[in-house]
Amino acid sequence: MRKGHKACTLTLCLLYFFFSWLTVPASAVEVNVEGDHPAEVKEKQEISCVLTISGIPSAADYLYFDTDLEKYDDKPIYNFTELNLQSNESHFELPVKDDIKKIVVQLNGQVPGVTEVQQYEKLTLVKYDSKRTGYAYYRIKPTDEKGNAIQGSDTSTFTIAVTDVDSFEKKAAQIEDPFLSMYLQDMFDRGLVTEANKLADYLIEKKTESLATEEESQQFKEKLNGFSDPVLGMKLQAFFDLGLHNESNELADYLLQEKADASNMK
């Protein structure tokens, strides 16, 4: 029994070490970046940085490179200076030698544009691509000779900020009427950017003009106290709240004066 117990224990230990060895995670690719690569960029912004790649798995036959940056000027997208190798393609596979410890590559590119302008006689339509997040400076993954991915890839992403879109969203948020706000957003999304902005500016300006000071509001409410008809008072208050301050005051003064004249004649 003892011998059987020892044999069983030994077998379990061997199996434990065997499976532990199988589940050891592969070394992850490490990418050190020198140069600007902000999380948020503007469209058509030029990017240039140096990537130093280490921790390449021994099982890797290739390093697969991918980027959403676009080529600009006469600069190659990938420039492997130490290997005397360049590429203008956004996708590139680099053969990996067994003894290589690190790879240095200069990454050059331009942020994609997300604005499209179309001219129809006197009408200008401006469309913005709805995809403005999830772009990548680089996606690097090791693969075997058949192109199968090996554990240990690395990715660096960025978001494209469009000032005109952000500015209009802030304007739309200031318009309290949900129907008008949705209508203006629909105009903007259809490409009528100039028209939507002009109308939004007008509505915001009217809203600002319609805001009475606390003192003006209090003075008008004191006038309404002189009306015995509550319905008439509510209508005048509604006109005042719409921004018709002068008109509401003039009408209130006129009606109060008529009331006073009628009282004096009695």
How would you describe this protein?
It contains seven helices and twelve strands. Helix 2 (163-173) packs antiparallel against helix 3, helix 3 (178-189) runs antiparallel to helix 4 (193-210) and helix 6 (230-241) packs antiparallel against helix 7 (245-265). A hairpin with a 2-residue loop joins strand 9 (115-120) and strand 10 (123-128). It is α+β, with helices and mostly antiparallel strands and 266 residues long. Strands 1-3-8-5-6 form a five-stranded antiparallel beta sheet, with no helix packed on it. A five-stranded mixed beta sheet has the order 2-12-11-4-7. Strands 9-10 form a two-stranded antiparallel ribbon. The chain folds into three domains: 26-161, Immunoglobulin-like, CATH 2.60.40; 166-210, no CATH class; 214-265, no CATH class.
